[in-house]
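Here is an idea for our session: we take a single protein and study its fold together. Which protein we use is up to you, so please pick one and set it down. Once you have written the record down, we can walk along the chain together:
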Amino acid sequence: MLPQTAAPHPLPTSAEAALATRLAAVAPEAYARSRNHLDGAVTRLSPWITHGRLELPELIARYRLSGADTLAFEFGWREFFHHVWQHLGDGILADVRPGLPGVPYQPTLPDDIRQGRTGLPAIDRAVAELYATGYLHNHARMWLASYAVHLRKVHWRCAADWLYGHLLDGDLASNHLSWQWVAATFSSKPYLFNAANVARFAPPDWHCPGSAIDTDYPPLEALARSPRALGPSPGAPGLAEPALLAAPPDNLLDPRDHLPPDSGTPLTLVHPWALRAGPGPRLGVIHLPFHRRFPWSAARWAFVLTQMRAVTDRIWIGDLRQLQGRFHAEATLNPGYREALAGLDAVLAPPPRWLPEPPRLCSSFSRFWAACGQPSPKRRWHG
């Protein structure tokens, strides 16, 4: 039973303070100047944006942004990826375009990458930071993706699934289409990086002098287009990869989380991508079939459940298709959640968007940006 008068759990002071600190620290002009650097003034708001705690229209208004501002331009990439997701659906989980011809890719991510012991500092530092914080600067994400796909010949999909599970801000469209952008299955050419690029944008302990990437771009592109794969450097120390879990760990659960809600009470269902406060009664929902397919780290489970308990009366964990009653909910494109919500007796509201949705699929960001009436883009996002 879900008491109509139950009070939501308040967010822990530390969680409230973390978001308030991040919001106060955002400086659009500093972002525009330094966002390409790993120690630049990036916002780090993406976990709250991904999970619906913050909305892009709200952030555009808060910082008085227009499409001419670099920060708004970068927000536009998320809108573009979701535009493509809207049109292609689960097609974003497979090659959107043919990949590089004649290149065989292995279907599993090697242990040395998962354990951060490739011997390439930029990659091993990225993996260590990912496990420690659940976050990576976009440059580090692109370097990691380029190394895995083009130097080690790992298929982008298995690597994208792995990264998605560990990121606090993992978003299927943004993550998987970015990997495809690097792999040249959602772009016209492979994204490559070299030691000079790392030295320009990363701290010294990330630098890679004398390594396989300490060369010019033509030989790296030749390697990317060849069937030859590099191996790891011997002797690098390894990390223990945090487990990816198909359900929340026991220490995060409440005894009521598996009790069915009152089917006679109209409820608002709050799923992991719509974690905003609103009128009650409100039931947080975890649809386990999705998470068996896309497991999360314990850190991501903790982030989501903390936010969810703060904006709901309680949480229910199971298969959404088993729920009976009348509901309101926000629609989502996440597979499993999407179909289960559509099959309920539910009024579904569209997720909030900043930019208008073009009627036809735009094959590139520049076409999408122009179709939304925004200024011509100047550069690709790096952070």
